UniProtKB/TrEMBL annotation, chains A, B:
<dbReference type="InterPro" id="IPR000843">
    <property type="entry name" value="HTH_LacI"/>
</dbReference>
<keyword id="KW-0238">DNA-binding</keyword>
<feature type="domain" description="HTH lacI-type">
    <location>
        <begin position="2"/>
        <end position="56"/>
    </location>
</feature>
<keyword id="KW-0805">Transcription regulation</keyword>
<dbReference type="InterPro" id="IPR001761">
    <property type="entry name" value="Peripla_BP/Lac1_sug-bd_dom"/>
</dbReference>
<dbReference type="InterPro" id="IPR010982">
    <property type="entry name" value="Lambda_DNA-bd_dom_sf"/>
</dbReference>
<keyword id="KW-0804">Transcription</keyword>
<dbReference type="GO" id="GO:0003700">
    <property type="term" value="F:DNA-binding transcription factor activity"/>
</dbReference>
<protein>
    <submittedName>
        <fullName>LacI family DNA-binding transcriptional regulator</fullName>
    </submittedName>
</protein>
<dbReference type="Pfam" id="PF00356">
    <property type="entry name" value="LacI"/>
</dbReference>
<dbReference type="GO" id="GO:0000976">
    <property type="term" value="F:transcription cis-regulatory region binding"/>
</dbReference>
<keyword id="KW-0678">Repressor</keyword>
<dbReference type="Pfam" id="PF00532">
    <property type="entry name" value="Peripla_BP_1"/>
</dbReference>
<dbReference type="InterPro" id="IPR028082">
    <property type="entry name" value="Peripla_BP_I"/>
</dbReference>
């Protein structure tokens, strides 16, 4: 079995450096990291699978990689994940990957090296190859990561349909959809497809604007203001609630009445939004069910790495009617 | 040196049970846990200090115990903690203790058993004794935990003063303060003291209502409605922003104009509030500075468990003027 010294020798660095790379400690060049990880791969050094193969050597640690808990949606999801894991005797190592690919990559390596039992991932900075290399049980939230990583998501297509229907029944003739960036293979794209399909049935066209998830609220607000000023739109579906709050702000500033002038529908329906913005019509994702499903699948994979799982697990959403559509 | 078997023998349970207690895995009675932890104490089994005493055996894991990340304030704080720890090569195990004393107790034990290098704690379900027993470096956010645990907080007294001043300059004659539960030794009580002292200087009296942090928003809203209906108040300082949002909601429902009828000041001033509720006058806590200070102190204690630290580290707050006071 390969040791730190073997890896150090092959990589041409000291054992201390290898240890630092594994623990991601101290300042290390990307070149050094790559040398060490190549050596680990060549010598088939797999700290985690090794650990798992030794009875009782499970760490009871789960790595969770998500965009960031300062967003109330991921805040609620992380709180739910932590709570459910705790009840099953697991602890959570949290990584907020934001839109920082290097951080996500470093975390993946740290999680592998620290022998977590499994990973829940819902970030999407890295390419497919990097997730395929991980060699640990992974379950994804709402993102395509790799063919062998099951995706748990809410029914994005149904959500898009419900949003379109509520705008139309509220009298919108010129609806608009504001999404984050649409990515190939991303389940969230179905929100757009569901929206589009319902409008087509009603012979309505729509406009689409993309506001990347990582844009600052100030920049988003500017673009929303431009949109509200220049276009003859009378209904907006935002594929997240926070963007809908910005639309509400800008509409107020421009003296546009909601829902008379502009009907508004958001997406996510967190407890936070339901408590502090009950006026907003939104599509509620079943966060508790999503988390229960992700943890259930992950524990199955941890118990039996070769167990067969579906590629997609889709949970139903709910329309929460507020005063922004009537 | 005591082994699992020694502890098992003394506690009168199997070694597997001891391991389960340490890892908090499977269903265990409180009685069994107490027996095992007493035996660990009697045999002076200190997994973490042991680990720390062996060079290179640091886990680079930090335990973080806070009320819960679904609250935007703690969400932003946790994101900042994680980000700063990551840059220093540490990973974070997150515990959302809510108001669940048993969960907080179980986590403390798990963190001790799992040999985290240190703990950041800002929850307050447990008595002083339990934090004194931990035997790990701990830094507290805004809570008195034990005499040897340094507290980092924002200047709660100054915050209370600023809130009172902004209500008064905005024309309030009958101000009100809505706080969470006031606890002995809690630094957050100073928000009330600072508020009170400024009012006294202006020969103004005030009313106080306490709404426990753990109350649901619906229950808080009911009490706020009652308050706004029955009392002749014209200004409210809420010691957290979310409660201020509920006041705004209820005032709107009762057709009370803000700030003409009711002046309103919150507390926390998270990025979330500044972005999505820029209208709210609030006292901004310097979250980044607080986190930098907590991590700096914690790493000092980890390097040298006997290093002398102050009891209190107090960082200045800022008044963010919005349209709810004018």
């Amino acid at each position: 079995m390969a040791t730190l010294d073997d890896i150090a020798k092959l990589a041409g660095v000291s054992a201390t450096t290898v240890s630092r790379v594994i623990n991601n400690y101290g300042s290390l060049s990307e070149k050094t990291k790559t040398k060490v990880f190549s050596a680990m791969q060549e010598l088939n050094y797999q700290p985690n699978s090794l650990a798992r193969s030794l009875k009782g050597k499970k760490t009871q640690l789960i790595g969770v990689i998500l965009p960031g808990v300062s967003n109330p949606f991921f805040g609620q999801m992380v709180q739910e994940i932590e709570d459910q894991l705790f009840k099953k005797g697991f602890k959570m190592i949290l990584c907020n990957a934001g839109n920082d690919a290097q951080k996500e990559r470093d975390y993946l390596r740290m999680l592998m090296a620290n022998r977590v039992d499994g990973i829940i991932a819902g970030s999407h900075n890295l390419g497919i190859e990097e997730y395929q290399k991980v060699g640990l049980p992974i379950i994804s939230f709402d993102r395509y990561l790799s063919d062998n990583v099951p995706i748990v998501s809410s029914d994005n297509y149904q959500g898009g349909q419900l949003a379109a229907q509520s705008l139309i029944s509220s009298g919108s003739k010129n609806p608009q959809i504001i999404t984050g960036s649409n990515r190939p293979n991303s389940p969230t794209n179905s929100r757009l497809t569901g929206f589009k399909d319902v409008l087509e049935k009603h012979d309505l066209s729509y406009n689409l604007i993309e506001l990347p998830f990582s844009s600052s609220p100030n920049i988003k607000s500017l673009k929303i203001k431009e949109l509200l000023t220049n276009k003859k739109i009378d209904g907006i579906f935002c594929t997240d609630d926070l963007t809908a709050l910005l639309v509400k702000q800008q509409a107020q500033a421009l003296n546009l009445q909601i829902p008379t002038d502009i009907r508004l529908v958001g997406y996510d329906g967190t407890n936070f939004i339901q408590n502090y913005h009950p006026e907003l019509t939104t599509i509620m994702q079943p966060i508790t069910d999503i988390v229960t499903m992700m943890i259930d699948l992950l524990l199955k994979r941890i118990d039996d790495p070769d167990c067969q799982l579906e590629k997609n697990y889709v949970l139903p959403v709910k329309l929460i009617m507020g005063k922004t559509t009537l």
